[in-house]
Design brief:
Chain A contains 5 helices and no strands. Chain A has 160 residues and is mainly α. Classes of the chains: A mainly alpha (160), B mainly alpha (499).
C-alpha cells in the first residue's frame, strides 16, 4: 500500500476518534439552557468529522483517479539520503525544547547552533563558535532588552 | 476635503512626523522578519514609545509605519525561508518561495516590494475618497456574510488541488479546520478536544503550525537531500529587474487586488489574511490555463496578488477604525487602544474635531509606502544574500528561528515540542504528496468560520440565513464555483485531449 493511503488510514483513525468525541461524549456535559440553542459546541466538529471520514475513505479506497508522482524525495529510498543527520537534528530540537527553561537561553541556544552546524559537517570552529555566540547574544538582547519579552539567560544556579 | 488634505500634508511633512514614519517602517521591517513577531505584537510593544511622544498624530503615524513595515518584513521571511511569521503573508510563500528556490529571490522581493507599495498607495487613495461612505456599507455585513466570505477564502485551496489531488487538498483543509476546533472557543466558552491538557486550553498557536507546516519540512528536506540554494544568483542587481513583459503581466493583478484587498480590509474582522487568500484564489481562477499551472510553482502573478491584497487590506482596515471607532482586526484594536490612551476618540467626529490627525495618517500612508519601497529596493540584494550562507550555518539558524517563533508567540516551551511533532507529521505528509497550504488555510480561517456560522445559526434559529440573506447566498455560490471550476476545466481539457 502506498504511503498516501497509509497516511489516510492513520488520519481515518484520528477522525473516527474525533467524531466519536463530537457525537457521543461532548454533549453530555452541556448545560440545560444550551440544549435549546440551534447550535451546540459539538455541531461544527460533527460536520467536520463526517467530511473528514468521507475524504479519508475516498483516498484509502483510491476512488479518485490521478497520476501518481514521486515527490521531491522518494520515501522508499530514505536510506540513500542523509537520514541520520535529519534525525539527529530533530533530537537536538527536542533537547533544546527541554533545556531552554532550566539551562537558560544563552547556553542552550549557543549549544544548539554549534551542535546543529557540527551535525551537518561544519568544522570551522574558529568561525562557528564566535558566530553562534554573537547571534545568541544579539537575539537575546533584542527579545529580552528591546522587546521586553522575558527569557531567562542563564541557569538558576548561575543567577539567571 | 481639499482643506483637510492640505492640513494633512502640512502635519505629515513636519520633520518630526517624517522621522516617525521612517523609523516606524524600519523597526517594523526588521522586527517583522523574525517569525513569531507579527504586527500585533510589534505595535503592542511600541505603544509605550508612541504614548511617550505625546502628539497623537505623530504617535499614530509611527504605529502605522510599524504596521506596514511588519507586513513587508513578514513577506521577506516567507519568500526567502518559507517561514511566514504572520497569517497575512502565508499566501506570499506559495509562489515567493519557489521563486527563491529557482534563483529568483531578488526578483521575488522586488515584486513583493512593488506590489506592496502599489497596494498600499492605491488603498490610501481609495481611503481618501471613499472612507466616509464605506463605513456605513461595512456595517451591512453581518455574521452570515462573514461566514460566506470565509468560505470564499477557503476556495483558495483549489489552487493546490492538482490532478488527482482534489480529495487530498480537501482532506488537508478539513484537518486544518479540525485543528482550529481544539481549545476554548470564543463563543462557547468551554474547552474542546484538549484531552485535559492545560497547554491546549488556548488551542494550537498559529506560528507553531505555520513553522511546522512550511519551514521545518523544508529545512528537513534540505538536510535529507542537500542542494545549492542558488548562491550565484539572487544577490545581483540584474536579478532585481522586472522585464517589460512581467510588468505588463502583473499590472492588472496589482490593479484588481488593490481594489479587492482594500474593500475586504474595510470589513471588520476580514483583514489582510482573508484578502491575501482571496486575492490568490481569484487571480488563479481568472488566469489562463497555462498560467494556472504555474501557480504554486513560482508564478509572478501568484506572488503579486497576495502581496498587493494584504497591503491594500491593511489600509482598508483603517476605514472602520477612523470613521466608526470600530477596530476591524487585532492590530487595529491595539491602535484604537493607543488612540484612546492619547485622548483621541476615533469615530464619525474625528474628521471634524481632529482633521489634522485623520488626514495626517492618510498622507503618512503614502509616505510610509514610499519609504518602504526606497528602503527595501536597495537592500534587496543584501537580504537575498541570506540564501548564499553555507547550508551548515543556514539550516541550524532556520531551525532556531522556527523554534523562537513558536516560543515567542505563546511563551510556552510545550509549543516547541508541538512544533517538532507537527513538523514530523508535515514531513510525512509532504513525502506522500499531500498539499500542506490548505491545512494552514483551514486552520487560520477555521475559528472565524465557526464563530460566524454559530452566530448566524443563533440569530436565524437554524441555517435559514443562507437563503434569507441574498448576499450570503451569492457569496456561497461564488465559492462553490471557485472550488468546482478548476476540476471542471481540467476534466474538459482531458476530454478534449483524449478525443
Amino acid at each position: 500500500m502506498a504511503l498516501d493511503r497509509w497516511i489516510a488510514l492513520i488520519l481515518l483513525g484520528i477522525c473516527l476518534a474525533y467524531g466519536y468525541t463530537a457525537w457521543f461524549t461532548m454533549d453530555g456535559s452541556l448545560a440545560p439552557f444550551m440544549r435549546r440553542n440551534p447550535i451546540w459546541p459539538s455541531t461544527f466538529p460533527k460536520v467536520l468529522s463526517i467530511l473528514s471520514i468521507v475524504a479519508c475513505t475516498i483516498i484509502l479506497l483510491g476512488l479518485e483517479k490521478g497520476e501518481t508522482k514521486v515527490g521531491e524525495i522518494d520515501y522508499r529510498r530514505l536510506g540513500d539520503y542523509h537520514l541520520g543527520q535529519a534525525l539527529l537534528l530533530l533530537g537536538l530540537m527536542v533537547a533544546y525544547a527541554l533545556c531552554l527553561r532550566p539551562v537558560g537561553f544563552i547556553i542552550s541556544t549557543s549549544s544548539f547552533l554549534i551542535l546543529g552546524a557540527a551535525i551537518l559537517g561544519e568544522r570551522k570552529w574558529h568561525i562557528l563558535l564566535p558566530v553562534a555566540a554573537f547571534a545568541t547574544f544579539v537575539v537575546w538582547y533584542l527579545v529580552q532588552e528591546v522587546l521586553g519579552i522575558y527569557m531567562r539567560p542563564l541557569p538558576g544556579l548561575l543567577g539567571g | 476635503m481639499l482643506e483637510g488634505i492640505l492640513i494633512g500634508l502640512q502635519t505629515a511633512f513636519s520633520i518630526q512626523n517624517l522621522l516617525m514614519v521612517i523609523g516606524g517602517c524600519l523597526i517594523g521591517t526588521f522586527v517583522g522578519m523574525l517569525p513569531g513577531l507579527g504586527p500585533m505584537s510589534i505595535i503592542a510593544i511600541m505603544i509605550p514609545v508612541a504614548i511617550s511622544i505625546g502628539d497623537p498624530a505623530a504617535a499614530l503615524i509611527l504605529l502605522a509605519g510599524v504596521y506596514y513595515g511588519a507586513i513587508f518584513g513578514g513577506s521577506t521571511s516567507s519568500i526567502l525561508l518559507n517561514a511566514p511569521g504572520v497569517a497575512g503573508t502565508v499566501a506570499s510563500s506559495f509562489d515567493g518561495y519557489p521563486m527563491a528556490q529557482q534563483g529568483k529571490a531578488g526578483k521575488a522581493l522586488t515584486i513583493a516590494a512593488i506590489s506592496s507599495f502599489c497596494g498600499g498607495a492605491i488603498g490610501a487613495v481609495l481611503l481618501m475618497v471613499f472612507a466616509p461612505a464605506l463605513s456605513s456599507v461595512a456595517l451591512l455585513f453581518h455574521s452570515a456574510e462573514y461566514f460566506a466570505l470565509m468560505v470564499v477564502g477557503l476556495s483558495a485551496i483549489a489552487a493546490f488541488a492538482g490532478s488527482g489531488q482534489v480529495t487530498k487538498a480537501l482532506m488537508m483543509t478539513v484537518l486544518g479546520l479540525i485543528l482550529a476546533t481544539v481549545g476554548e472557543g470564543a463563543l462557547f466558552n468551554m474547552p474542546r478536544f484538549t484531552m485535559g491538557l492545560m497547554d491546549l486550553q488556548s488551542g494550537f498557536g498559529f506560528v507553531t503550525l505555520a513553522m511546522a507546516m512550511f519551514a521545518l519540512p523544508e529545512a528537513l528536506f534540505l538536510v535529507l537531500k542537500p542542494k545549492e540554494l542558488n548562491p550565484e544568483s539572487g544577490g545581483e542587481i540584474k536579478d532585481l529587474r522586472i522585464s517589460k513583459k512581467e510588468a505588463v503581466a502583473i499590472a492588472p493583478v496589482i490593479g484588481r487586488q488593490s481594489i479587492q484587498g482594500f474593500f475586504i480590509g474595510v470589513l471588520p474582522g476580514a483583514g489582510a489574511t482573508i484578502a491575501s487568500f482571496l486575492g490568490y484564489a481569484v487571480e488563479r481562477n481568472i488566469a489562463k490555463k497555462e498560467e494556472q499551472d504555474e501557480f504554486g510553482k513560482g508564478s509572478i502573478k501568484g506572488l503579486a496578488a497576495p502581496e498587493t491584497a494584504n497591503n491594500a487590506a491593511c489600509t482598508g482596515s483603517f476605514v472602520p477604525l477612523l470613521t466608526l471607532g470600530i477596530p476591524g482586526s487585532g492590530t487595529t484594536a491595539i491602535l484604537l487602544g493607543a488612540l484612546i490612551a492619547l485622548n483621541v476618540t476615533p469615530g464619525p467626529r474625528l474628521m471634524i474635531d481632529n482633521p489634522q490627525i485623520f488626514w495626517a495618517v492618510i498622507i503618512s500612508m503614502f509616505i510610509g509606502n514610499l519609504v518602504l519601497l526606497i528602503l527595501n529596493l536597495p537592500l534587496i540584494p543584501y537580504i537575498a544574500k541570506v540564501l548564499s550562507v553555507p547550508r551548515t550555518f543556514l539550516i541550524p539558524f532556520i531551525l532556531f528561528f522556527t523554534l523562537m517563533g513558536a516560543y515567542i508567540g505563546q511563551n510556552n516551551a510545550t509549543e516547541l515540542l508541538l512544533l517538532v511533532g507537527f513538523g514530523i507529521c508535515a514531513t510525512a505528509l509532504k513525502f506522500a504528496n499531500y498539499p500542506l497550504p490548505p491545512l494552514l488555510i483551514g486552520f487560520i480561517l477555521g475559528g472565524m468560520l465557526e464563530d460566524n456560522f454559530s452566530r448566524s445559526m443563533q440569530l436565524y434559529d437554524g441555517i435559514g440565513f443562507i437563503w434569507e440573506r441574498p448576499m450570503t447566498l451569492g457569496l456561497l455560490v461564488i465559492a462553490a464555483i471557485l472550488i468546482v471550476l478548476p476540476s471542471f476545466r481540467a476534466r474538459r481539457a482531458r476530454a478534449r485531449a483524449a478525443g
